[in-house]
Automatic annotation (TrEMBL):
Family: Belongs to the glycogen phosphorylase family.
Protein name in UniProt: Alpha-1,4 glucan phosphorylase
Native source species: Hungatella hominis
PROSITE patterns: PHOSPHORYLASE (PS00102)
InterPro entries associated with the record: Glycg_phsphrylas, Glyco_trans_35, Pyridoxal_P_attach_site
Length: 821
């Protein structure tokens, strides 16, 4: 139990909060009010450790990591925090005594969804691991007024509903007005001579006040509480309406609007760059505030800014925070008067960059016009960084224009953020072994040749505290019963389960737990979708953002193909299957939204077809998010990880399924490669082209899907059903675009860009193997247990230790708390 936790104090605190905040007695409190009261009581326990942690960091003058990210997909905090202060049994008892159920109270919390998908969730897992391992770290991001939209499905179509997550107030955040700071946009730069050198002054700008809100990140059972600092924007000057100066008035209104719009909403694009001006404003806003604050904090304890990098490291979560490079340069040059070389030495020893994708549509390139208008001083600095870097290229590769064309930071009227991030930092890492190899060999080949020492791999990981201990309590307890609780902070220890994989009793216990988790999910589906699913069927799950490269389309086409077989032969011998989908599509991504409609239309036809005797069910889970993900992973038998090889940098859902004992049906892509390496190919279902084959075809300009269409009747039949009204009798043309995307070259893309038809036969064959394998319950249980047992590598604790050893060089800090203070 947590040292700072006392049951009676906690109980009083809950009752007091209900009274003080809501003017109610505890028996009158609504579930939402009870949630708030409990959350404040938990926060009260956390606060002491939070203060103690930061005192300890100060005392030890510890080097600090700033994890800079546009996204933190935190998910609910209450349950996680209770677990991490190690007070779960006591809190349950107290709530029981007060007549509340913890699960029901947890369900009242909105998911803070300040992220899109894997990239944002990775940041959240990293914060959990950093705190649990005791490393001094801040997450720095944006306090979006509206996070990831809520998804409603109406008539099979996705509708986006604003996510007003702050409407009742969020109990875990603390406003820190004392750390507010000014961020400037636009205007122009005036050069003045002073003390024999040039000085640069930004004038005629607009500005906003950045105000931080802190959220506690509770380490597991170690008294460490780190901070997620998210910045809100406020208008800088309250102006008087009777102002006679029209110019001032105009400007004041504009600044007020700027403050309002800047943090209004998270851009809902995953793996896609839209090039919007407001997005660049968001980036500079949170980066300038975070970097200014990091510098101020450093100067409170140190004299010499030249040694800033000894106490500070900035990790850039993709290119979105890359303006940190020129912003740090600006502060060092303009505010500390360092020379260029001095400032550059500090900056390039402070910044490190993680690449998360090779999808070309995700590459950030800002038009010079926009960039220089919005950030005039920053642009000057980027120009100088570029000038010097191009000089360096010319020295290394005399006369080689091609190298400049490929590597220059400013080229063709655009500022290329990846190039800036690579040049401005000391480390470039990919997020799985295959991904890093592709970066070195293909996408970033020239940079790798020029500066190989910067490149390194950090295979992603996930936190077992949320995705097993919290999300799957039955399995967590079973594991602990077998091998003890060490796995909670040392996941490789879970390999000790392997000896039970062959034990029939353990297999039975394991399958019973899986069954109960399937019942829990079936109940969720019944409540939220009104569909009955049979927990004895195979739960075959694909949950992730909707994107063509992730190939949800291949999955649903295969469902149609199976359905056709069943229609032809109603006695077809197959294990009943429930195909479960969950996915949000970016609001402007037409084809992705149409794919959601297709999945729902297919579901409608199949689920209502009595003739197939419930052998196939198709479920689209509305509003896939962290809180229901925990329930879904726990209940899965089959984990669909079917991206076109080379396209999914890592994937992290694949790891969450594995940890919960689902078998992977996947391509040799991203971290799937390493998953298969750990668990053995015989305990997974691997299919499809390799990344080398895919890249080979791409270099040849693709392949001809018409050959497959002409020669494979079953595939042709499925494709024809897309355009003959089979799933859309009211509008037979509805799915024409999807049909065209697979067969037609008239659009600007290659036909079947993601090799869906090419991989289809091999995918169908792998699905067939699953059907066969599931019949042997002993085999399946063994393979599932082995998946859990071999998941040790994929803890984010391991990933963080690797970042610390190779990039960040932080030291662990211990925090002692006296009992009942
Ligand atoms: O493969 C995943 C990876 O596991 C990758 O697609 C995702 O990052 C995960 C964590 O490393 C990702 N998201 C984005 N790029 N890669 C992205 C790009 C632009 C906007 C938002 C997200």
């Amino acid at each position: 139990m947590s040292m700072g936790f006392d049951k009676e104090t906690f109980k009083k605190s809950v009752i007091y909060n209900v009274k003080n905040v809501f003017r109610k007695t505890i028996d009158e409190a609504t579930p939402e009010q009870a949630f708030q009261a409990v959350a404040y009581a938990v926060k009260d326990v956390i606060i002491d450790e939070w203060i103690a942690t930061h005192k300890e960091y100060e005392k030890q003058d510890a080097k600090t990591l700033y994890y800079l990210s546009m996204e933190f997909l935190m998910g609910r905090a209450l349950g996680n925090n209770i677990i991490n202060i190690m007070a779960l049994p006591e809190v349950k008892e107290v709530l029981d005594e007060l007549g509340f159920d913890l699960n029901a109270i947890e369900d009242q919390e909105p998911d803070p969804a300040l992220g899109n998908g894997g990239l944002g969730r990775l940041a959240a897992c990293f914060l959990d691991s950093l705190a649990t391992l005791g490393y001094p770290a801040y997450g720095c991001g944006i306090r979006y007024r509206y996070g990831m939209f809520k998804q409603k499905i109406e008539n099979g179509y996705q509708m986006e509903v604003p996510d007003d997550w702050l409407k009742n107030g969020y109990p875990f955040e603390v406003r820190r007005a004392e750390y507010a700071t000014e961020v400037k946009f636009g205007g122009y730069v005036r050069t003045v001579w002073e003390d024999g050198r040039e000085h640069f002054v930004q004038e005629g700008y607009q500005s906003v006040r950045a105000v931080p809100y802190d959220m506690p990140i509770v380490g597991y059972g170690n008294n460490v509480v780190n901070t997620l600092r998210i910045w809100d924007a406020e208008a800088i000057n309250t102006f008087s309406l009777d102002s006679f100066d029209k110019g001032d008035y105009q400007k004041a209104v504009e600044q007020e609007n700027l403050a309002k719009t800047i943090v209004e909403v998270l851009y809902p694009n995953d793996n896609h760059y839209a090039g919007k001006e407001l997005r660049l404003k968001q980036q500079y806003f949170f980066i300038s505030a975070s970097v200014q604050r990091a510098v101020k904090k450093y100067m409170e304890k140190h004299e010499d800014i030249h040694k800033f990098f000894e106490k500070t490291v900035f990790q850039l979560n993709d290119t979105h925070p890359t303006v940190a490079v020129p912003e740090l340069m600006r502060i060092l040059l303009d505010e500390f008067n360092l020379t260029w070389d001095e400032a550059w030495a500090v900056t390039t020893k402070t910044c490190a960059y993680t690449n998360h994708t090779i999808m070309s549509e995700a590459l950030e390139k800002w038009p010079i016009e926009l960039f220089s208008r919005l950030l005039p001083r920053i642009y000057q600095i980027v120009e100088e960084i570029n000038r010097r870097f191009v000089e360096q290229i010319q020295q290394m590769y005399p006369g080689n224009q091609d190298k400049i064309r490929k590597m220059a930071i400013i080229y063709d009227g655009q500022v290329r953020m990846a190039n800036l991030a690579i040049v401005g930092g000391f480390s470039v890492n990919g997020v799985a072994r295959l991904h890093t190899e592709i970066l070195k060999k293909e996408e970033l080949r020239d940079f790798y040749e020029m500066m190989p020492q910067k490149f390194n791999n950090k295979t992603n990981g996930i936190t077992q505290r949320r995705f097993l201990l919290h999300g799957n309590p039955l399995l967590a307890e079973w594991v602990t019963g077998k091998i003890g609780s060490e796995w909670i902070t040392n996941l490789p220890h879970i390999h000790r389960l392997a000896v039970y994989a062959d034990d029939p009793k353990c297999q039975q216990e394991f399958m019973d737990i899986k069954y109960q988790n399937k019942v829990r999910l079936a109940k969720y589906i019944k409540e939220h979708n009104g569909i009955d699913v049979d927990p004895r069927s195979i739960f075959d799950v694909q949950v992730k953002r909707l994107h063509e490269y992730k190939r949800q389309l291949m999955n649903i086409l295969h469902v149609i193909y199976l359905y056709n077989q069943l229609k032809d032969n109603p006695n077809l011998d197959m294990i009943p299957r429930t195909f479960i989908f969950g996915a949000k599509a970016a609001a402007g991504y037409k084809r992705a939204k149409l794919t959601i409609k297709l999945i729902n239309s297919v579901a409608d036809v199949i689920n209502n077809d009595k003739s197939i005797d419930g052998k196939i069910k198709v479920v689209f889970i509305e509003d896939y998010k962290v809180s229901n993900a925990e329930i879904i992973f726990a209940a899965a038998d089959v984990s669909e990880q079917i991206s076109t090889a080379s396209k999914e940098a890592s994937g992290t859902g694949n790891m969450k399924f594995m940890l919960n004992g689902a078998l992977t049906l996947g391509t040799m892509d991203g971290a799937n490669v390493e998953i298969v390496e750990e668990v053995g190919a015989e305990n997974a279902f691997i299919f499809g082209m390799t990344s080398d084959e895919v890249i080979g075809y791409e270099n040849k300009g693709g392949y001809n899907p018409m050959e497959i269409f002409n020669n494979n009747y079953q595939i042709r039949r499925v494709l024809m059903q897309l355009i003959n009204g089979y799933f859309a009798p009211q509008d037979p043309e509805l799915f024409r675009d999807i049909y065209n995307s697979l067969l037609n070259t008239q659009s600007s893309d290659r036909a079947d860009t993601y090799f869906i038809l090419k991989d289809f036969p091999s995918y169908a064959e792998a699905q067939q193997r699953i059907d066969q394998a599931y019949r042997n319950e002993t085999w399946w249980a063994k393979a599932a247990i082995l998946n859990v047992a071999c998941s040790g590598k994929f803890t984010s604790d391991r990933t963080i230790e690797e970042y610390v050893n190779d990039i960040w060089h932080l030291e662990k800090v211990k925090v002692e708390i006296e009992a009942n203070q």
